[in-house]
Amino acid sequence: MMAKPLYDEDFVAWTQAQAEALRAVPRVHNQLDYDQLAEEVADLGKRDLRELLSRLEVLIEHLVKLDAAPETQPAAHWARTVRDQRREIVRLLDESPSLRGKLNEARKPGTATRLDQVLHAGWEEACQSLRQIDGIVHADLPERPHWTLDDLMNR
Fold first, then answer.
1. I want to staple 64 with a disulfide (CB 3.0 to 4.6 A). Which of 56, 57, 85, 126 is the partner?
2. Residue from 15, 98, 103, 91 nearest 57 by CA
3. CB proximity list for 137: less than 8 A, separation 6 or greater
4. Looking at the domain assignment, is residue 143 inside a domain?
5. Mean pLDDT over all residues of the chain?
């Protein structure tokens, strides 16, 4: 039985490997723009990372709202959004398991991990929305959560 190509196992890892391979190809005189092709292929994987981070931010925002908002607020809508985001996050991680590891990396040395950054952004969005709700005062706003990816997917 032939092994599945990396493309089928982990799309993001495949894009990064292909970009590296394109950058390493000896240049010959033809119409190919090797450097730009490598960047475009690498950006395909980055697109999936951006989608994952965006979906995590929405998930965090709605989890915080569910935890902190009064019962009179539209919790059913937020719960549905949580389910939808989790389903799409699972899909992204199934297609590209290497994305999980990228969440624990910092964009730049000495900065917070991507997951910590998105936790903060989602929490900020939730707090801004919660401030708009009658009856919510500053003291009622939740503290920033310190959730792991597993916490987000299972709580």
1. 126
2. 103
3. none
4. yes
5. 87
Is 96 a domain residue?
A: yes
Q: In angstroms, rounded to a whole number, what is the distance separating the alpha carbons of residues 77 and 55?
A: 16
For residue range 75-120, what is the model confidence (pLDDT) as tens digits? 888 899 999 999 999 999 999 999 999 999 998 899 999 999 999 9
Burial class, 155, CB count within 10 angstroms (exposed 0-12 / middle 13-18 / buried 19+)? exposed
pTM assigned to the model: 0.83
Is residue 148 assigned to a domain? yes
Specify if 27 maps to a domain: no
Q: Which residue has the tokens 């989890």?
A: 63
CA atoms within 13 A on the CB side of 147: 22
The DSSP line for 101-141 is HHHTSBSSTTS-BHHHHHHHHHHHHHHHHHHTSTT--GGGS
- Structural domain harbouring 94: 46-154
